[in-house]
From TrEMBL:
One of its GO terms (molecular function) is iron-sulfur cluster binding. PROSITE patterns: 2FE2S_FER_2 (PS51085). It comes from Pelagovum pacificum. Residues 5-109 form the 2Fe-2S ferredoxin-type domain. SUPFAM superfamilies: 2Fe-2S ferredoxin-like (SSF54292). Coiled coil: none annotated. This is DUF4445 domain-containing protein. InterPro entries: 2Fe-2S_ferredoxin-like_sf (IPR036010), 2Fe-2S_ferredoxin-type (IPR001041), Beta-grasp_dom_sf (IPR012675), Corrinoid_activation_enz (IPR052911), Raco-like_middle (IPR041414), Raco-like_middle_sf (IPR042259), RACo_C (IPR027980), RACo_linker (IPR040506). It comes from the Bacteria.
Length: 680
């Protein structure tokens, strides 16, 4: 045995001796080396490409001869002619080990390849999808051995792939015989590995060899918006992304109003369920078209959502979530057939995974943020804020993680704002206001130019300037505070008080004109006193939730803050802090994670191990219920001021001294006048 050739695989370092003539793929399988193959070593799929190393390897005490592998053969030549093999590569199923050899398995040949999921944290996800393709050759039926086609397919999978406990539904069973015969008893099957057992479900099959690719949908089902990512289940790459407004908005803009609609209207919950399922089915077709694929290639979906959306997606009346103790119908992860959720446009056999909820008002979206950002691995105390209609807040480090939700409402997403709109071309998304002249400049989605740059009018001529989205309203309010147009209590000053005609009267209050497009038949975009109040309520709820978690840990400061959410990447940290959305912290310690919930959904789609990890993690996260905590209201009231009534905000004060202006209904403002006199 000791005379058999030694094979060493890199980068795994696994090694073993095998009889001369053993294919590289066979040796890799027996050693547990991560080498891909769909065809099972028949030279069809070319997934098992390897790079042999020749010469002296002092590290291994090995010298590899040029003839350590069998010669290049006709199968390899055929593939090289057809698609091209990179220089130095061999097919692991064709190359046989003849002498001692070092074999490198390149990343693209590894089944569980690592894919960077988020450039912001340069973190990798090991690809381990629940659904994979397998090519299999099935024995033809024999009158002397009366077994069914499915039983012979099951036996072939056991022999060729060591896959047992195969399940098949009636729809797929009805297709089995014609496809087996069309493929000459050779088929490719899509198998979904069960989470509960080691069994597999046969989702679909194709005659002969089918190389895919197969796709999954990672869906962040929010109260206001639905975001979906079409993801390649082999590479982990996002092929297309799309978003739509949640049609349930017509039943109520926030979660509690939807619960109320369900309570007040018999059949209301089912009506909302039907609306969102129909929208999801349409979105699936649209995203497949955008990605240039057939919807039937989508074989898996993963959902993350807050508890009310979770129940409405599943067709469960959320009435219990509207009253203490806020009981969920189920908090565990869900494994379903996609068709049970009305997803009929994708592959009929597609499966759905829904991440677990943490508690009654902290849902699968918070679990997805935890999966993406991994606060339980942090050395320092990190506050993660997922900004949306219902904010999810996590605080913790390696010693433990706390979570709560806070009812911020839809103002941060542009709803309930007088000129508000969704983030679409033409929407104002960035704002700056000159502190001396009080004149604004802004950027709109679809253009890289500022409004005072030459060429801005021409570049925005098609979209126009249509309104202001969530990130735009946040920056506008913060800029108004920094420019002295807004006092700490949230009052907008008059033209006399602020020194700018852009402050215009509106009833008994004032508004600030951000853009006047009326001369070109466009809109008059203003920030009204009502808009300020809506933002104050939203940011106060957000801050109060974070402060409540800090109370639980007995701390007054956090080490760093991560802003997540659909527009987490679009709001600057300084504006978030001026507004008082987040606690005071060094500016460089505030980072953005973008749509962390959506990222968590993609991670769960790509990795069964990640699903197990988050299912275990949610059991250890400690939930704090804001609705019954008496200090929440106290924190909420103090946080109404901009940035805060009592918290000192030393880091912010060192960067941005905020004007000490005070506007009131009586008009006049001595502090403003004194400040102007000092300027001379």
């Amino acid at each position: 045995m000791s005379n058999d050739p030694l094979v060493i695989f890199t980068p795994s370092g696994k090694r073993g001796r095998f009889p001369a003539g053993t294919p590289v793929l066979t040796a890799a399988r027996q050693l547990g080396v991560d080498l891909d193959s769909v065809c099972g070593g028949r030279g069809i799929c070319s997934k098992c490409q390897v790079t042999p190393g020749y010469g002296q390897f002092s590290k291994h005490g090995l010298t590899v001869a040029e003839d350590a592998l069998s010669e290049w053969n006709a199968v390899e030549q055929r593939y090289d002619d057809k698609r091209g093999l990179p220089t130095g590569r061999r097919l692991g199923c064709q190359a046989q080990i003849l002498k001692d050899i070092v074999i490198d398995v390149p990343p693209e040949s590894q089944v569980h390849r690592q894919v960077v999921r988020k450039a912001a944290t340069v973190r990798a996800v090991t690809m381990d999808p629940a659904t994979r393709l397998y090519y299999v050759e099935v024995e033809e039926p024999d009158m002397h051995e009366p077994t069914g086609d499915f039983e012979r397919l099951s036996r072939a999978l056991a022999e060729q792939w060591d896959i047992h406990d195969l399940a098949i539904d009636l729809r797929t069973l009805s297709q089995l015989q014609p496809k087996l015969r069309k493929g000459g008893w050779k088929v490719t099957v899509a198998l979904h590995k069960s989470a509960e057992t080691d069994g597999h479900a046969l989702l679909d099959l194709w005659p002969g060899f089918f190389d895919g690719p197969l796709y999954g949908l990672a869906i962040d089902l929010g109260s206001t918006t639905i975001a979906a990512h079409l993801t390649d289940l082999v590479t982990g790459e996002v092929t297309a992304s799309a978003g739509i407004m949640n049609p349930q908005i017509r039943f109520g803009e926030d979660l509690m109003s939807r619960v109320s609609y369900s309570m007040m209207n018999p059949g209301g919950a089912l009506e909302m369920t039907r609306a969102v399922r129909e929208a999801l089915d349409r979105l699936s077709v649209e995203i497949a078209k955008e990605g240039g694929i057939e919807p039937a290639r989508i074989v898996e979906t993963v959902f993350v959502c807050n508890p009310v959306m979770h129940h409405l997606l599943l067709g469960i009346d959320p009435v219990e979530l509207g009253q203490a103790p806020f009981a969920l119908a189920t908090s565990g992860a869900m494994h379903l057939a996609a068709k049970e959720l009305g997803l009929t446009s994708i592959n009929p056999g597609a499966r759905t995974y829904i991440l677990p909820c943490i508690a009654g008002h902290v849902g699968a979206d918070a679990a997805a943020v935890a999966l993406s950002e991994e606060p339980e691995k942090s050395e320092d105390l990190v506050l993660i804020v997922d900004v949306g209609t219902n904010a999810e807040i996590l605080l913790g480090n390696r010693d433990g993680v706390l979570a709560c939700s806070s009812p911020t409402g839809p103002a941060f997403e542009g709803a309930q704002i007088s000129s508000g709109q969704r983030a679409a071309p033409g929407a104002i998304e960035r704002v700056e206001i000159d502190a001396t002249t009080k004149e604004p400049r802004f950027k709109v989605i679809g253009s890289d130019l500022w409004s005072d740059d030459s060429g801005f009018a021409a570049e925005t001529a098609v979209t126009g300037i249509t309104g202001i989205c969530g990130s735009g309203i946040i920056e506008a309010v913060a800029e108004m505070r920094m420019a002295g147009l807004l006092d700490a209590s949230g009052l907008i000053g008059s033209a006399e008080q602020t020194g700018t005609p852009r402050s215009i009267p509106e009833g008994r209050t004032h508004s600030y004109v951000l853009h006047d497009g009326t001369a070109e038949n466009g809109p008059l975009i203003t920030i009204t006193q009502g808009d300020i109040r809506a933002i104050q309520l939203a940011k106060s709820a957000l801050y109060a939730g974070a402060r409540l978690l800090m109370d639980q840990l007995g701390v007054d400061d956090v080490d760093r803050v991560v802003l997540a959410g659909a527009f987490g990447a679009h709001i600057s940290p300084i504006h978030a802090m001026v507004l008082g959305m987040i606690p005071d912290v060094a500016l460089e310690k505030v980072t953005s994670a973008g749509n962390a919930a959506g990222t968590g959904a993609r991670i769960a789609l790509c990795s069964r191990a990640a699903r197990s990890r988050i299912e275990d993690q949610v059991r250890r996260i400690h939930k704090v219920e804001t609705a019954i905590e008496p200090r929440f209201q106290e924190h909420f009231v103090a946080a109404n001021a901009i940035p805060h009534a009592t918290a000192p905000f030393p880091h912010l004060s060192a960067l941005v001294p905020l004007p000490a202006v005070h506007f009131n209904a009586g008009g006049g403002d001595d502090s403003t006048k004194r400040r102007r006199r000092r300027r001379g």
